[in-house]
Amino acid sequence: MDPTANPLVKEISTERNVTEDSKQNDTAGVTHSHNGEQNEKAASTEISSEAQNVVIDSEDDFPEGGIRAWLVVVGACLCLFPSFGFMVSIGPVQDYLHQNQLSEYSSRDVGWIPSVFVYLSLALGIWVGPLFDRYGARWIALGGSIGYTIMMFLLAECEKYWHFMLCLGFLGGITGAALTTTSLACVAHWFKRRRGLTQGIAMIGSSFGGLTIPLILRATFPNYGYKWSIRILAFLFLGCFVIGNLIMRSRIPYNKNAKKKSIISLSIFADLRFSLLTVAVFCFEVVLFGSLGIVPTYATISTDYPPNTGFYLISVMNGVSSVGRLITGYISDKYGRFNTLLVSAVVALLAMLIVWLPFGQHHLAAMYVFISLWGMMTGCWMALVPACIGQLCRADEFGRYYGTCYFVASLSTLVCIPISGELVEIVGPTAMVAFYIAVLALGVVAFTASRWACLHWKWDWTTKV
């Protein structure tokens, strides 16, 4: 007998099949539901990961204030006081050496010592900057501080030309690069919207050094002699370094991709904005450091001026420079760093053309008016150039861009410092001033083109750049 012929068997078999199908469907449903939950969790994890990446992006999360951030600015200011400050006030030391230990050498030969010092302090940023992006500030700043302090104490013991060249020129230049590049890069890690103001405050350290260091040396040289005058500066610098290293920190974790890049990356010049800015900075540095060399000689050969006029002009220039860095830094955050720097360069150019060139040699009042405007405008340059560089790159690449830009700009200091004072005696003060006017005009043109490139070649005077 066929079992399938029995209706009861058919019914039981059908129910069994329905039950098995139902279980399979339920199992499939549970599996589908479980897979759905896994997909939702995976999607949620992915979203969370993306959100986390957004939070830690160095370009989206700047403190813009707070005690930690402002302590970094103070620390940078303290480290720039001995490094940049001694750099812009090296004139009294150079003059003393020329009259005493190195009296048998010409002013040009003696001038090569501070020239190498300034050149290496700026040029070696092309290595220090990428190292900062990779490893942060702590060990670079500490090593620079120790080396710079040793340099100052050794400088007090130097007697021969090669002593001064090795100690001040090479050791001072190498350690100075570690300090200047690291200090400005640290500030860029903590501020973006207020970067112009904060880097201006940090650069006040160099301006204050340019004002006070000559005053200290002028008082100590006749009373304590050369050795103890330099030692007094060394102890003062040591105190600045101790406090500066304790409170100055980088914020952004080291860039993992930076290790994949070469130390010297000339490919960044493919960015026309950066290339034009570098040309402008080169011209600015020629005029800035050239003027530091020409002003004392310019005042000396002008018989209408008192004997100490050159010293007072440099002091006024450095003193007013600190005000310029602070005011223009604040203005630049409101109206744009490129805009503010462009206006300051044009004002400096007009001051040279209208005041210094026709009246500077025979009218002392006009010379003081010019040097006040000049100090304020050049203070703006030194404060805002790093801020403008920071607008062209990410914060974790600031060291590379800053170091590369000043590697090119430093070539100007290698030549203009030792020969500017001598050239003014050969070609005359009027011709030298006219030359600097032409160089600054070229810098203004290059900087204007850089701003234009930032706007994608669509010129607009009112855009905040």
TrEMBL record:
Membrane topology note: Multi-pass membrane protein
InterPro entries xrefs: MFS, MFS_dom, MFS_trans_sf, Proton-linked_MCT
Gene3D superfamilies per the UniProt record, alphabetical: MFS general substrate transporter like domains
Keywords: Membrane, Transmembrane, Transmembrane helix
Subcellular location(s) per record: Membrane
One Pfam family here: MFS_1
Main localization of the protein described in the UniProt heading: membrane
Residue numbers spanned by region Disordered: 1-44
Superkingdom classification of source: Eukaryota
Keyword Nucleotide-binding: no
Composition-biased stretches (Basic and acidic residues): 12-24
GO terms for MF: transmembrane transporter activity
Domain (Major facilitator superfamily (MFS) profile) ranges: 68-453
Signal peptide per UniProt: none
Residues passing through the membrane, by range: 69-90, 110-132, 139-156, 162-188, 200-217, 229-248, 268-290, 310-328, 340-359, 365-389, 401-420, 426-449
GO annotations of cellular component type: membrane
Similarity comment text for this entry: Belongs to the major facilitator superfamily. Monocarboxylate porter (TC 2.A.1.13) family.
PANTHER family, per the entry: MONOCARBOXYLATE TRANSPORTER, MONOCARBOXYLATE TRANSPORTER, PUTATIVE (AFU_ORTHOLOGUE AFUA_2G12790)-RELATED
Protein name according to UniProt: Major facilitator superfamily (MFS) profile domain-containing protein
Classification lineage: Eukaryota, Fungi, Dikarya, Ascomycota, Pezizomycotina
